[in-house]
Each structure stands twice: as C-alpha cells, then as structure tokens.
Amino acid sequence: METIAVFFGGKSNEREISIITGMYCVNLLRGERRVLPVYLDPAGGMLLGEEVRGVEEFRGGTPKSFKPVVPVRGGLAPANKPKKRIEVGCALNCCHGGAGEGGVLSALLEWYGIPSASPGMAESAVFLDKVLSKAALKGMDIPVLPAFALREEAFFAEGCAGGWRAEAAALGYPVVVKPSKLGSSVGISVAQTEEELEKALLRAFRLDESVLVEQYLKGKRDLNIAAYRRGEEIVLSPVEEVFSDSPILTFGEKYEGTGERRHELPARIPPETAASIADMLKRVYAQFGMRGIVRADFLLSASGEPYFNELNTVPGTLALYLFSDRLTEARDLLLRLLAEGKKRREEKATLQSGILSSAVFGGKNGLKRYI
Q1: Which among 25, 61, 71, 24 is positioned nearest to 41, based on CA atoms?
Q2: In the prediction, which pLDDT does 151 show?
C-alpha cells in the first residue's frame, strides 16, 4: 500500500487550525493509503505519530506517541535510525501560515525528492506575503484595492513625521491594517482615523515586521472560490459568499464559533461576475504553474466590481467543502490530488561549465582572481 505523508503544525499563529486540517485529511485518507501524520514541532523538527486519531489528543500539547523523524531522499526516517527509510509516495501540506505554508516545506520536499500534491515554493512564498502578492497581482493587471506597504524599521525610525500618515490620508479613511504574513484575519483591524491607524500599526508590528495598509471597501461582500489541477484542466469551484457582522471577517467567525458562520454556496451574484472571478483565479493559477488546491478570496464592491483580495495556498480543510459536502467525495478528491502530485515533472538538464578543472583558478594565486 502506498504511503502518504500529511504535514501539519509548525510555528504559526494558525498552528491549531493546521492541526484540525491535518487530522481531517489524515482520517479521510486512512484505509485508502498508509498515512504518516507528520507534526512540525513549533520548537523545530518533525515528529511522526502513526497512532494519533483525533484533534483532542493535542489539547495537552504534543502527543507522547510522536517520535522525531528526518527527511531523507525519497522519504522519512527515524531521527535515531536515518538509514531506516520509509518511502513516501506523495506528501500533502496542511500547514497554515509560517514556514509551512510560506514555501519552506515545499522547498524541503523538493530538495529530498519527495513528490507533493500541494503548491510549490514560489507561489507559496509570494502569496503568504500580502505585500508580494499585491505586487504580483498588479503585475498581471488583476484588480486589487489601493494600498501601501510599511516596514517596522521605517515606522519606528520616522516616528510622528512618518510618510505613512500622508499615504493613509491619500487612500482615505477608513483603512485596513494587515500584517503581511499572517492569515485567518489574525492581527487585521480597521482604522477610522489617523490616531486609530497609529495604534493599529503598533499592534500589527508586534506580530509581523511588515504591514499592508489598504483602502477599506465600504459595502463590500466577501467571496471565495477554489481551484485545483486535473491533468491539463484547471477545475474551479462555485463562488461562495461569506457573511459577517463585523467590518472584516473575524477569526472567531471563521473558526471559534463566537459568531455564526453564515455563507451561501453558490453566491447570489450575476453570472458574468462569477465568470470574471473564476477567470482571474484561473489566470493566476496557470501563470504560477500551480498544483494542489488553492482558495482565493475576493471583495465585491457595492457597485459590483470584484477585487482580488488574497490567495491561500493551504486553505482551511483544503477548501474541500467548496467542491462537495460529502466526505466520500472529499476523500476521492484528495486521492486525485495525490495522484496528480506524483506525476514528476521532467528534470531539466544542469549545465556544468567545467571551470573547476581549469588551472587558472587553482592554488593560492588563482583565488586572487575573486578579490
């Protein structure tokens, strides 16, 4: 039976949500494949717990049954027995936020030759960072809301005379303050005045070194859509609308049950608007050569104009609910993604200059050419 490694956890504000997604996928796949639940310890390293069964086992910390493992060529091995390799047919990334979603895990899997059913390093790094993703989307002529980026060192160095005041005024209040590399609405707030903006920036810089200050879209509607690759086809979900009683969709409304999560699938929007949103996500997915499931969040203005807001390369529960509300169909979709991930891309040739065989750069005198 083929072995699948499901990675979750990590050092992130979304670690607990990642555990929920990870265990959801682990339990969906059990019985169909041998599943290796691999927990990324916030303190560093990987831990394998084949016997773990549910989220509740993490309530007291990392389950004691988890044992350290290390990546090796084509798989994983016990940390104390690195030659005892477990071959991994394909990996699934369920890490939300941090290095897990931000491209580090993707790069590590690629380095060790472990196939992955999840997005790759480049798109993961770009779309975890709201500043980078804004630049990438603008470069593709995808409509996004006006915004400016602000780094921590510049904010504290400039103090009261900071240019951010003028930039925010040019956007017009209210504005949204977003920590650049955090998700699930963590650290996001709406500032109605310059004084509120300064306080919001101070809070945001406690969580991140970079912040995006964006124009707030009054009367907006929150829309989601997901995509995955099936051969040469990019499959798109219906557009979902999520309702909120707050200026922004909060963490509590998403996960904690502090507010009822209300949504409509498919969203009641004009067919041409749904088609435009689907086309934008399809363009982005294709341009970055993505694989795996991603979910894009859009904002719809009161006048009906859609704006690309964010793209999640590791969405909650992998956005499987946008394609089906039946567990058997969600499992089958995961299996299709894993089969797609196993298709290795053609390894391109690596050119060698042969410069090391030249006597020109040999010895102590040769090294002076570099100085």
Answers
A1: 61
A2: 92
pTM, whole model, 2 decimals?
Answer: 0.89
Q: Please give the pLDDT value at position 258.
A: 45
Q: Widest CA span of the chain, in angstroms?
A: 74
pLDDT < 50 regions, the chain: 251, 255, 258-259
Which residue do the tokens 């499959």 mark?
235
CATH code matching the domain that covers 221-313, chosen among 3.30.1490.100, 3.30.470.20, 1.10.8.60, 3.30.450.20? 3.30.470.20
User: Which phi and psi angles does 268 have, rounded to 5°?
Assistant: -85, 85
Output the pLDDT for position 187. 79
User: For the chain, what are the domain ranges?
Assistant: 3-118, 146-215, 221-313
What pLDDT score was predicted for residue 61?
Answer: 85
CA 119 to the chain's CA centroid: 9
Which architecture does CATH list for 146-215? 2-Layer Sandwich (3.30)
CA distances from 246 to 162, 178, 223, 224, 251 (A): 29, 16, 15, 17, 11
